[in-house]
Design brief:
The complex is a heterodimer of chains A (about 110) and B (about 110).
Chain A: E1 5-7, E2 10-13, E3 19-24, E4 31-37, E5 44-50, E6 53-56, E7 65-68, E8 75-79, E9 88-95, E10 103-104, E11 108-112
Parallel strand pairs in A: 2-11
Antiparallel strand pairs in A: 1-3, 3-8, 4-5, 4-9, 5-6, 7-8, 9-10, 9-11
Chain B: E1 4-7, E2 10-14, E3 19-25, E4 31-37, E5 43-48, E6 52-56, E7 59-64, E8 69-74, E9 83-90, E10 97-98, E11 102-107
Parallel strand pairs in B: 2-11
Antiparallel strand pairs in B: 1-3, 3-8, 4-5, 4-9, 6-7, 7-8, 9-10, 9-11
Classes of the chains: A mainly beta (about 110), B mainly beta (about 110).
Amino acid sequence: GAGVSQTPSNKVTEKGKYVELRCDPISGHTALYWYRQSLGQGPEFLIYFQGTGAADDSGLPNDRFFAVRPEGSVSTLKIQRTERGDSAVYLCASSLGPGVGYTFGSGTRLTVV
Amino acid sequence: GIQVEQSPPDLILQEGANSTLRCNFSDSVNNLQWFHQNPWGQLINLFYIPSGTKQNGRLSATTVATERYSLLYISSSQTTDSGVYFCAAGGSNYKLTFGKGTLLTVNP
């Protein structure tokens, strides 16, 4: 597509539930990134994929968070046993490769109640 | 990791005014980008500029990597320029650390 697409745009879930957030990058972009933005803050790095592999997952806060990109295109961020502190906007970005400008999607606003 | 500081935190301008936003970073970088987050939350990439100077219409940016700072210039500001401007820097070429942003309000 023309831009980075993220679904759903909004997700409200109950504490303890499992959620999946989807990112569809720009066609041909091999690099894909997940960031998380809390209110009033800049985005924080979660994970970087180059192709199908997670090249750097050092930003994932704990083992409840996991992300996949099985075919090198669409990526899914998975959060188990959600907590209220997980509430934030989850942003996905893609680029032609590392070291060039990112294009961000519109984000998924996750609210854990 | 890299620390990124932006100034000023807030800026209010009249339409037509010029402004300079500053970004200081704590270590050498291989990646530096400026973004504009509009009031609806969309992050737009303005510049990829780990060094040198670039211009795009009314916007220009300069990064002096040896002195660890970058500047974003906005000329003849318009109300649509309002939003938060983020600087993001990285020692690697893929992982960015964002500053807290500059909230710009342009009044008509």
